[in-house]
Amino acid sequence: MAETLALLTALCYALAAVLQHREAVGERGLLALLKKPWWHVGLAINALGSGFQAIALHIGELSAVQPLLVTAIVFSLLTNALMRREWPGAAEWLGVAAVSLGLTVFLSATRPTPGTHVPTAAEWATAISATCASAAGCVLLARLRWPASFLGAAAGILFGLSAALIKATADLVAVQGAAALLSWIPVAMAAITLAAFYMLQRAFQGGDLVSSWPTLNALDPFCATLLGMYLYGERLQGGPQTVALALAAVAVTIWGLIRLAGSPLVEPKEVL
């Protein structure tokens, strides 16, 4: 069930990214995007995806749910193909196969197991400080070189942290109901999610998807998996051979992401 909801989340995020990226290219500043009607449609679809993600993270593990969100780029490819009435070529299908194979092998090899640890305030402080510092470092590097890539990396790191906070918020709401919204965790979740969303829009404005999407989609599940292990005690099973196989699967997935991000069917084109 969590896996199905994760794929629905990826579909929503893909549709939102297609609409928002094609509106963001060539624009400067968030105020310019607020005047774009299709950007608001993407925002609504993105919110729907966030709802699916919250449920998936409540019933599943960070290390199992977040990697599946990488499939968003596959859904983006297929969405653009339908909108343009263009059939993907061999190169695109090769990228789809690489992403699908990489994710399948990674999840099958590592077999993420649920964690039973309840994070303490000190552990949350450490996790939030470390991830925000890493994202800030990427923003500083974006000022020097490859802005879309480093801003995409910053967004990916923050979205990984946002996923951990979404899981914590969903768990709290399930126990405390609406009273849980008075906790600091939902406030932190909203702040981090907005920061990640802002970085994503900046990455879209900074260049093409081949520059931003691979770093975004690689660092989001990587950061979420580390946080799941640190905060919740989630574990990836297997020994050294499994680690080697998982790393190979990650490399294949990233290669597929780069192939797909460079496809004309993923790049924005005026069709609306």
Outline of the structure:
Helices cover 78% and strands 0% of the residues. The protein is an all-alpha fold.
Key terms:
about 270 residues; mainly alpha
Structure overview:
- The chain is mostly helical and 272 residues long.
- The protein has eleven helices and no strands.
- 44% of the residues are buried.
- The model has no long low-confidence stretch (mean pLDDT 82).
Gyration radius, in Å: 18 Å
Distance linking N and C termini = 34 Å
Residue ranges: pLDDT <50 for 5 or more in a row?
Answer: none
Q: What's the number of structural domains?
A: 1
Strand content: under 5%
Task: State the total count of DSSP E strands.
Answer: 0
Give a short account of the largest sheet: none
Q: Which word captures the global form? A: globular
Structural class: mainly alpha
| Strand/helix succession | HHHHHHHHHHH
On the 0 to 100 scale, the average pLDDT is: 82
Tally of helical segments: 11
Question: Residue share in helices?
Answer: over 70%
